[in-house]
Amino acid sequence: MPASDALPGSVADALHRRRSVRAFSDKPVDPDLLRTIFANAQRAPSGGNLQPWQVTVVTGEAWQRVKDAVAARIAMGREGYQPEYDIYPKGLTEPWEARRFGVGEALYASLGIPREDKTGRLAQFMDNYKGFGAPVMLFLHCSRIMGPPQWSDMGMWLQSVMLQLVDNGLASCPQECWAMYGATIRETLGLGADQILFTGLAIGHADTDAAVNRWPVPRVGLEEVIDWQGF
Question: Out of 10, 128, 153, 197, which residue is the most buried by the measure of CB atoms under 10 Å away?
Answer without folding.
Answer: 197
